[in-house]
Amino acid sequence: MSLLVVGSMAIDSVKTPFGEREEAVGGSATYFSVAASYFTDVRLVAVVGADFPADTLAFLEERKIDISGIERSAGETFRWRGEYGFDLNTAHTLDTQLNVFESFSPRLPDDFKDTGFVFLANIDPELQADVLGQANAPRLVACDTMNFWIEGKREELLKTLSMVDLVVINDAEARALSGEANIARAARRIREIGPRTLVVKQGEYGALLFHEGGVFSAPGLPIEDVCDPTGAGDSFAGGFMGHLAATGDLSEAGMRRAVVFGSVMASFNVESFSYDRMRALTSEEIDARYRAFSELAHFERL
Amino acid sequence: MSLLVVGSMAIDSVKTPFGEREEAVGGSATYFSVAASYFTDVRLVAVVGADFPADTLAFLEERKIDISGIERSAGETFRWRGEYGFDLNTAHTLDTQLNVFESFSPRLPDDFKDTGFVFLANIDPELQADVLGQANAPRLVACDTMNFWIEGKREELLKTLSMVDLVVINDAEARALSGEANIARAARRIREIGPRTLVVKQGEYGALLFHEGGVFSAPGLPIEDVCDPTGAGDSFAGGFMGHLAATGDLSEAGMRRAVVFGSVMASFNVESFSYDRMRALTSEEIDARYRAFSELAHFERL
User: Fold this and answer.
1) Which of A161, A192, B177, B225 is the most buried (most CB within 10 A)?
2) Cα dist. A241→A157, A245, A260, A268, B94 in Å?
3) Burial level of B45, CB count in 10 A (0-12/13-18/19+)?
4) B215 shares contact with chain A (CB less than 8 Å)
5) Are A94 and A118 in contact (CB under 8 A)?
6) A253-298: per-residue pLDDT in tens?
């Protein structure tokens, strides 16, 4: 089945202990759609300014991502500048310029409205709800969010959460959203808001899946050459949703595999700045890394 | 095979967001030996003051732990006072009184010298090396350490590490010891010092095993009722070494299972203050939790 993502496209300037990159393409919808494109057909809704690199748009089309939902606006593209210390789990924002993103009001092209799988990346929860109103009964709706909305638009966010099937957030967001420091309690409270399924991203430590009372823990792959964690969470979501959409398998076992494919894509993403490492992966590389995760987590019961 | 532990016995006063406990029994060797006693015969070498609770010594004997190596000294037992915020991964020390521990010079009773499995808990690395000199060719020697020794007695610690087969430390210690922020690189450097095998404890996130070039990630069990993490690392080491000593299986598969049994014992330990939860576990409880870890980490390859 096809997969629709609505989110941001950005130009990021990032500094990590391992290097820096000025004005590279980023944004949640960019990372998500590139990662997901290795699994299924992706439809992308976002806004870019007149300055957005044409070669990125060409690359997305090469990846068979349908970019007809990208609004090209006069003005500058959303810009983010940030850095990471040795604790790569936490980004420090130095500057944010919303630019054309400030007045973004996502509109689904008519031929996007029947998409089976929908991912609402981290945007204003009112816009997320609005997008849902434009979609015709998708089979699965998932969303991300961030502390900015948890603190600033809590009621609107709770309304959106009550309308989605699945939430993909990181552990700090899960704690802020639930008011619970303990992650198992946090998960229970978030699922009480409405979503049946919760995925908690834990950066280098992996991810937890809370689904129908069961819990799954996907490990983080210890990688020696971590370069830049920007977009890791979005790449995770892209691999996760991409696998779900490709297989249509929403069973517990299918969800678990999807979490691992999310981890696989995130593990590639952190090996480079921007989406460089994800530009030209082969299915052999993806499968080999999936096997590496399988070996990483495997132990025989006695 | 029998398992020897040399470490501290203490009286701890601990405050967590979930309660507090004044003057409860703690110490690395206490937690370790109680956890390990569910798997194998344990021989305990430590020092206590005249004020150490007799009922704890009686309890250890009930658990068939050989306490003939506990030196009873005039003076007061080692005391630690600390607290934890909602981030239970980090202890904040408020006060340390070494007391009788300050002049501790561990002596192995003659009938302890042939113990097959030896665990040198977190004490002065010179004392760890001295204990090794008293032991007759144990099959496996493992040790723990802490930042205090990494910073204060680095050369002595490196010497001890070059003499052991296996190191069990937490991620902050691995980073401090290696000078590498990246945990995969840190592991490689530590194994270059000498130990063939490294276990990195990651608190609520689980543990990593680096062994012969392979990596294993054991998940952390998301527990709703976490009470006090004090002693979790020592309980982990006790379950891990206890299982290794009981089975004698030092294969990769055996090591992996041992890491999970370590995680099992740590997960019980955090459910209470002191070693309350580990006082009277049944083998059914331990097996059930081992299965819970197995289900937590399990996914089918495609």
Assistant:
1) B177
2) 21, 6, 11, 16, 47
3) buried
4) yes
5) no
6) 999 999 999 999 999 999 999 999 999 999 999 999 999 999 999 9
Q: Where are the alpha helices (DSSP H) in B28-153?
A: 28-36, 54-62, 125-134, 147-152
ipTM rounded to 2 decimals: 0.93
| Pairing label, strands A214-218, B19-26 | unpaired
Long-range contacts of B249-255 (CB under 8 A, 24+ apart): B250/B140, B252/B211, B252/B212, B252/B214, B252/B216, B253/A299, B253/A300, B255/B197, B255/B209, B255/B211, B255/B216
Predicted model pTM:
0.95
The verdict on A296 touching B (C-beta cutoff 8 Å) is: yes
Please identify which residue in the block is written with the tokens 């890791």.
A232
Q: Is A253 on the interface with B (CB under 8 A)?
A: yes
CB atoms within 10 A of CB A138: 21
The Cα–Cα gap between A237 and A33 comes to 9
Cα–Cα distance, A199 to A190 (Å, whole number): 11
Q: Nearest CA of chain A to the CA of B48: how many Å?
A: 35
How far is residue B50 from each of residues A43, A107, A118, A257, B46, measured CA to CA in Å? Answer: 73, 76, 67, 57, 13
H-type helices in A136-197, by residue range? 147-152, 154-163, 171-178, 183-193
Query: How far apart, in whole angstroms, are the C-alpha atoms of residue B48 and residue B56?
Result: 11
d(CA A56, CA A11): 11
Q: CA A165, CA A139: separation in Å to the nearest integer?
A: 9
Q: Name all domains of chain B by residue range, CATH numbers in brackets.
A: 3-297 (3.40.1190.20)
Residue A220 with chain B: CB contacts under 8 Å: 217
Element (DSSP H or E) covering residue A24: strand A19-26
Residue A47 in contact with residue A71, Cβ under 8 Å?
A: yes
